[in-house]
Amino acid sequence: MTDARPLGADEATFIAAARSGDAARFALITERHRRELQVHCYRMLANYEDAQDLTQETFLRAWHKRESFQGHATLRTWLYRIATNACLDFLGKRDNRTPVPSGLPDSELPYLQPYPDRMLPEDPQDSAVARETIELAFIVAVQHLPPRQRVVFILRDVLGWPAPKTAEALELTVASTTSALQRARVTMRAQLPGRRLDWRSPATHELSSDERGVVKSYIDAHQRNDLDALTSLLRDDLRFAMLPDPGTVTTTAKHAVDGWISGGLFQPGHDDWRGIATTVNRMPAAALYLRTPGHPEHRLFAIALLHIVDGEIAELTGFDATGTPWLDLPPAL
């Protein structure tokens, strides 16, 4: 795989470390690519813990294959190829990672996990961290692509790789790569109707003041147990999911709140809330803490990722936050 470029300092240093068997130097050189490779694996797998594991697998494979690196491609390209193949191998062994289309995208993704913003690459201009390509709706939509289409779409339309480079990395012809990309784009348009689909145009990164205000109001409504205020924040065609429970539902705002009440929330003993505004998957989010009878502290209960449209919550994806230490949230307030 070639990038038609002279051997760079990074590649020369890597080759020297590989030939000398200097594991510490090898790790130091490859480690700088960890965050972007982990995001790549996350897009492929939609699961933070699996992305961590596959990124580590990428470095192990790179070490074992180090003698094969000749500097014909950039080190970054070479590592992406290894990470991609590691993810494809993983997907080939996991039948439960192929969702069955049903019109409810989240319902087939019980393995979906949130991604902490603090673990994103630090360069805000990097296409690897464009907000539109890390939000939950995008991650879910990508999972509906067959694995080979998935990686072609990510490499071509998200990372901006040219067709020959993508084809060579995947050991495909340019024609088959182009065909896979065309089919992937059709699926993505169907999965993300009404969303911006040109991933190569300038992307947003920051929350709007409107989004920040809605998150604050969402937390305030919980802390005051103000169900009318909470209902008013939700769009009447709200899409709601609470993972890992199966099923995404489109419901009215009132039915959503009534369902939470019937499940025991906002009732005596489950009505003492605190919250922290944060961002996850570059989306506005609220970390919710609940103090139950017999406990002196508010303990981390759930995190709600919000897609906000025109000042209202159009999509709410909740996660049980008790098993997500990587989000780096306080366990109690």
Describe the structure.
The protein is built from 12 helices and 6 strands. With 333 residues, the protein is an alpha+beta fold. It has 2 domains: 9-191, no CATH class; 209-327, Nuclear Transport Factor 2, Chain: A. The protein has a 6-stranded mixed sheet. Helix 3 (34-45) packs across helix 4 (48-64) and helix 10 (209-223) packs antiparallel against helix 11 (227-233). The longest helix has 19 residues, at 75-93. The protein is globular. It starts with 8 loop residues before the first helix and ends in a 13-residue tail after the last strand. Mean pLDDT is 86; it is low at 100-107.
Overall tally of structural domains = 2
Main-sheet strand order equals 2-1-6-5-4-3
- Unreliable spans: 100-107
Count, helices: 12
Structural class: alpha+beta
Mean pLDDT: 86
Helix content: 40-55%
User: Terminal Cα separation, in Å?
Assistant: 52 Å
H/E element sequence: HHHHHHHHHHHEEHEEEE
Sketch the major β-sheet.
6 strands, mixed
Radius of gyration, in Å, reads 22 Å
Number of strands: 6
Dominant shape: globular
Strand content: 15-25%
